[in-house]
Amino acid sequence: MADMKAFRDEIDRWAAGGPDGTAKELAAALGLRTAVLLEGPSDVAAVEALAARHGRDLAAEGVCVVSMGGAMNVARYAGLLGPPGLGLRLTGLCDEGERGFYARGLERAGAPSGGFFVCAADLEDELVRALGPERAEEVVRAEGDLRAWQAFLNQPAQHGRSRQRQLRRFLGTKKGRKIRYGRLLVEALDTERVPRPLADLLRGL
Fold first, then answer.
1. CB of 104 within 8 A of CB of 135?
2. Phi and psi for 55 in degrees, rounded to 5?
3. Which residue, 61, 53, 3, 54, is CA-closest to 36?
4. Phi, psi at 191, each rounded to 5°
5. Which phi and psi angles does 83 have, rounded to 5°?
6. Which residues, 6 or more positions from 98, have their beta carbon under 8 angstroms from its beta carbon?
């Protein structure tokens, strides 16, 4: 049986300049119809966590959620997975600051940009704002990161910043933390408070 991880690995090799290998065969075997292009693995964790909360199995629905390893790779992945390549429908999230870059990259790839939803700063910022700083701090404490959080707050660079900005920055200070909290923050959300870009993305799949 075809495996989604094998397909993702194949796409990453292809995007890095290797041959397409078995990408087309795997896409067909998986019944893929849509690729969700996301900047990094923390975004993937958040999208998959929200889908799970709604009882959805994206892979079974023919949806592949892809980490591009950075916004600069959008043209490459769109070209491989979208109309010029495998012919999948493309959708995804982008940060406000990357909106123009995404538009140009998708245009270069010959792919439509209408299915991409914009986060005000980034997805972590959207999630912290939706939860509220107090609830987000509760998640940090429950996860056993209180000591690290308090040490972070004592850094001079954090003095005078809003609690939301501090939380957003904290999530990116240790390798793997953003990925872990991408899932945890989504799981802590009330279902009616899901950030609009994330809710619109899932609704459109």
1. no
2. 70, 25
3. 61
4. -60, -25
5. -55, -35
6. 39, 71
pLDDT score at 140: 97
Q: Letter for the amino acid at 65? A: V
Report how far residue 137's alpha carbon sits from residue 167's, in angstroms, rounded to the nearest whole number. Answer: 8
Q: Are 71 and 99 in contact (CB under 8 A)?
A: no
Separation CA 31–CA 16 (nearest Å): 24
Residue type (1 letter), 110: G
User: Can you tell me the distance from the alpha carbon of 122 to that of 178, in angstroms, rounded to the nearest whole number?
Assistant: 12
Q: How many CB atoms lie within 10 A of CB 84?
A: 13
Contact 171, 45 (CB under 8 A): no
CA atoms of 137 and 133, how far apart (whole Å): 6
pTM: 0.94
Q: What are the pLDDT digits (tens) for 69-90?
A: 999 999 999 999 998 899 999 9
* Beta strand residue intervals within 12-119, DSSP E: 34-38, 63-67, 89-95, 116-119
- Between CA 160 and CA 61 the distance in angstroms is 46
Exposure of 134 in the CB half-sphere (CA atoms within 13 A): 0
